[in-house]
Amino acid sequence: MEAEGEERQWSSLIVPSVLEIVIEKNFTTVPPRYVRPDQEKTEILNDSRLSSEIPVIDMKRLCSVSAMDSELKKLDFACQDWGFFQLVNHGIDSSFLDKLETEVQEFFNLSMEEKQKLWQRNGEFEGFGQVNIVSEDQKLDWGDMFILTTEPIRSRKSHFFSKLPPSFRETLETYSSQVKNIAKILFAKMASVLEIKRAEMEDLFEDVWQSIKINYYPPCPQPDQVIGLTPHSDAAGLTILLQVNQVEGLQIKKDGKWVVVKPLRDALVVNVGEILEIITNGRYRSIEHRAVVNSEKERLSVAVFHSPGKETIFGPAKSLVDRQKQSLFKSMSTQEYFDAFFAQKLNGKSHLETGGPTFMKGVAADLPIFQNFSYSYEKNIYLAHQFFYFSYL
Q: N or C of the chain: less Cβ packing under 10 Å?
């Protein structure tokens, strides 16, 4: 059914399972590699007032002739001011989401022997493990994840799909298809409100590269010493997340403070990724976010990422550039963009700022040092760590 992809693959160093550490060691002190003194102690705004201000978009209204205009304005505001919104009435049945929750839980409860069959391999980033691990002394997140490419079908890794529990595989295929359709509608609505041509938005995602990341965050005896997922902004075009078991943990950075995204039953959390920020020439913003853990409850989430096909060339939409009289980013291929992304560790909002000639805006992109610089893994590491001086703000 699935063909083995032949594209150049990215990789991440293989790391142990956090869940297995919790089960086997029965400890009260966090292992040193997971202690995160590097994480800023930014104020957390855990009040219902501000959390309730995170926009909620009603997809039924968004697709309704009578209510569409007002909902489009809300969508535009959400993408500009927050970079995040919760999506309700999206059409995915509640009973199906309950089934997904049960099967995700069962999947992470598989024995270590079964999980090893699905572990990341050297030179690959799909499977059980973590991503953006580039050195043996790099601090680790307090969480396990499972990553899988779902679209296009030709890029699927058959050795992963064939070993998934059959019912879970079927559920993932159904869910990924449903979410892809939602993303397609959202891209069309964004193009409409931005008044840009189909070729400048929707067509870029026609041969969509879709991947799923399933996250499991075990309870931690010292939750204030660790981080579930390092602060970052997503590299994709659009991320659609399900907070599977309704446990708090997702936080977004708003005006320099962390705001809790309180789970809404059956809602999907949608956020703008850096690729969409580039396509909209900076009008829509990819926002820094993170996951935290607690001492009592495990947390489960499923994130689905949507990006242009790996060979697709994308850049700021010409319609927007013509109106704004300036192109803030250069055009590039999805492959080039992710080559740089996976060559560095997660580090806040820095990826778009440190990506070298492919990403730079304005005068910095035209400096002689950036010209005729071909891409390779080693050069991307150099770019990622040396050109952080050029702020995109």
A: C
Please provide the DSSP assignment of 47-96 as one string.
-HHHHTTS-EEEHHHHT-TTTHHHHHHHHHHIIIIISEEEEES-S--HHH
Domains of the chain by start residue, with CATH: 18-323 (2.60.120.330)
Residue 10 has pLDDT above 70, yes or no: no
- Which residue type sits at 333? S
Give 36-67 pLDDT, tens digit per residue: 876 665 556 555 666 778 999 999 999 998 88
Length of the chain: 393
What single DSSP character describes residue 296? S
pTM (predicted TM-score): 0.85
**Residues 275, 179: Cα–Cα separation, whole Å:** 18
User: Do the Cβ atoms of 286 and 233 come closer than 8 Å?
Assistant: yes
Based on C-alpha coordinates, what's the Rg of the chain? 20
pLDDT digits (tens, 9 = 90+) for 93-114: 999 999 999 999 999 999 988 9
More confident residue, 304 or 26: 304
Nearest to 306 by CA among 374, 210, 203: 210
Token look-up 């963009």 returns 337
SS3 254: strand
Count the helices and strands in the chain (H runs, E runs). Answer: 12, 15
Residue 66 to residues 60, 71, 176, 185, Cα–Cα distance (Å): 11, 10, 29, 17
Which residue, 211, 299, 316, 296, is CA-closest to 261? 299
b/e code 219-233 from CB counts within 10 Å (16+ = b) = ebeebeebbbbbbbb
d(CA 283, CA 297): 38
